[in-house]
Amino acid sequence: MGIILRFVNKQGKVIERFLGLESVEDTTLTAIQGCLVGFLVRHGLSISRIRGQGYHGQSNMRGEFNDLQRQIRDKHGCPDSRASVSIETIESFEFVFILKMMLKLFAIINELSLILQQKDQDISQAMGLLVDVNECLKTLRDNGWDALFEDVKKFCAANEILVPNMDEHIPSMGHSRLSGITVSQLHYYRVQIFFAAIDSIRTEMSHRFNDVSMDLLVRFSCLDPKRNFSQFDVEKIAQLADIYSEDFLEADRALMKDQLEAYICYVRTHVEFTFCRDIASLAAKMVETKQHIIFPLVYRLLELALLLPVATASVERISSAVNIIPTDMCNEIPIDWLSDFAVYYIEEDISKDLDAEKILERFQSMVTQRMQ
């Protein structure tokens, strides 16, 4: 499990730091919670000061399947057979269908994916795209099958790829021929692949952005500085202090509306705030102009908005970094050593300034002390 700390520094800028790797026996909530709390305690951090949510990407990590595949190939396969199987797979109706379908899906979700992976997220833009993407996916599901199917058939005809008989019955997905459970080819491609892929994406979006998350996004989007703070809503923003009650004293909550009113009058009449493009640049400008001292409650809301963990960019970056180590080597390397290696590799902007000679001297002195 990789642990990332996302925080707002003293300059009002969002910083993400990889703290390390922690070994987990399973991915149950209890096990992950225990590992996370233990890790934070060892580093002198309090779980009560943490805001956000974890990202569990275990479903995307199919290393066990790759290991099994490699063992079978080593014992029974040969390079030539793999090449021939690959060509046969590519020159099939199913491969073409899935490829064409994925191209359509990526065209719809790509822009939203890119925005959600940015460290400095534009909450308002992300919210608008969430609604648009969900509507486009619904339209594709309801009305997109015929056009996709015709496109695939034309491609197959042009490239001499056999198009199966859509009335033919085949074993249903997840069942063997012996089970006797069959579906038509049309049902297989339309329902079990096309509908299932779209439903899977929409379900993941609804889980990731449920009613509670969307309510928070709506309220935080009211802080967006675009168009001279056109979305600013005192009532919606003030209620955030009640939602994040641990971050605001009762006296703070009583003062919140008055401070919001004074704040919006100030930022709308000072030209330096007209160039803020999102909440991240607004927070930085607040610190630069010392207004985070004048409006501390508003600035605290901006900090909370910047900590909303709707992006997975750091998670993907860390997974990619760890993936450069062969799986069998990962299993042999102690987790502490692997964690230290990952921190050094991932936090390159910090590690590049370290003096290698001083590190060697430190280790040599440690060895000398142990020998004594």
Automatic annotation (TrEMBL):
It comes from the Eukaryota. Residues 1-66 form the DUF4371 domain. InterPro entries: AtLOH3-like, DUF4371. Pfam families: DUF4371 (PF14291). This is DUF4371 domain-containing protein. It comes from Miscanthus lutarioriparius.
